[in-house]
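Reviewer 2 asked us to include a model.

Predict the structure of this chain.
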Amino acid sequence: MVATVAFQQTGGSNTELTPTDGVITISTSGSIVAAALYPGFPFPNTSAATTVNVLINNKAVVSAVSWNIGEAANPAIVTIASGASLTLDNSDKIAPNSHVVVGNGGTLILGGYATTTSDLIQFDGSGGTIEIAAGTTPSVIQYITNISENDTIIIDGLSADGYTYNKGVYTLTSDGQPISGTSAFQLPSANEGTTFTVSTITVDNGNGTTTTKTVLNAQHVVCFLPGSMIRTAEGDVAVENLQIGDSVVTFDWKTGEETVRPVIWVGKAHATVQPHLADDEAAYPVRVLKNAISEGVPYKDMLITAEHCLFFDGKFVPVRMLVNGSSIFYDKSFTSYDYYHLETAEHAVIVADGMLTESYLDTGNRRSFRQEGKVASIGGRAKAWATDAGAELCVDRAFVEPLFRKLEARKSSVAEGLRDADVVALTDDADLHLVTETGAVVRPVRHEGLRYSFMLPANVASVRIVSRASRPSDVIGPFVDDRRQMGVAVGDITFVTAARQENIVGHLAETKPEGWHADASQSDAAWTNGNATLPLSGLTDGNMGLLSLDIVAAGPYVAAVQKEDAQVLSA
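Predicted model (structure tokens):
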């Protein structure tokens, strides 16, 4: 075990860094030249491995050469955060069970480093960046785990403005056409279907050359479409015509007064609809018809993205939670579009198309936009809804559902553009079955109460528990902020052979197999996503047996979607 890092500070000599309270902290720029130095000599010992946790922070710019991170029996975690960056190349190694974690404001540059092992490199879910240097294939992305909203992946040397998605494969495109060469990648199964905004930036290298980079930001787009009329001190102005320094009208909901604030930033980006995804995740814009909220609100059709918030009674509510398919609906006539956002110094309630809504809150995705008009340098930390929002972000069903019902009830007051809403047909049939590693489908041989029993042949290492799956937001209504695919909730699992009975509890562990939802509120059952792995840990070696599952909850599920009778709407 080596609890050190051999480090050469920029402009300095090789030294050994040792841990404080179990962590080595690197807060200055330089190079990691190995895990340790040879005893008594300032020479790197490249055969050693750092087996203690390391934190790189404070905007330190660090590169590593011949650095071994952890050992199989003594893993280590390297965390990059707070504006710092770490560059790994093909001489660096990450041991099994060790991790490089990219935290809030941290950047990991893969400068030739590649892996075919999942989970060695991961985001921590707070808005980090991983940059794949030119010459490193984007396929490395499929081994990067825990991609969450506002995490960013940058691919050097590519110029893309969109992507296609087919059976788990993302293919980057330019003007709708696939980019030749290595432009395709996959994500780990837990992150399949993640939506990205795609933009291209050009970076001046300072030596007369530039580098083109494609920026993928995992996020829900929160923006206005062109033609959205923003209230300013001089009257309503189309969002695409706003400039830095213009004064917009903001609403102080605590005092009920209007104030004027300057625009400090205007951003523009481009979205491409992904029709294979659910409507609320596919990047379709939401059309709020004229008068849909109240008489004269909005005063014209409003086009915003699904995660954009409208303001009601002191709270911001994402418009996706108010979609009724009739007066507020996803406009599927769009296949791609430009979108804009504007920022004031503090997140604020502004007025668009006569409706109270929100200005831009930078939660770490600013680089996804191209700045419009005058150039201004915007720095500082990424902000958060909990601490920096102009009002509470509310997704609580108790508040949103009555609002949804109220707006749904007034759709008959909308004179133009009313759509036929979809009617969702439901079923309680889970279609529960197992699938073996060879693809064989195993149906239940017995069903009594909660218990489903399946006969398994010998030597089956694992099975997948497969069923229908639906999202509560689809089954109950968009006012339910739960968009997980829910299959079945599994309680006790037993495997019985002629000689013994074994209880299987892997699905109840804190770290669950693939396809299981983590839910700390339940300790005696776990929900699948409709296709969950169940390792059998050698229980069937040489033994056929009966696998029994207690299904403690299931369904209902979406069976079909039909159009509502237009005559009913017009009645």
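Confidence is low (pLDDT under 50) at residues 374-381, 564-571. The longest strand covers residues 545-554. We have added this to the supplementary material.
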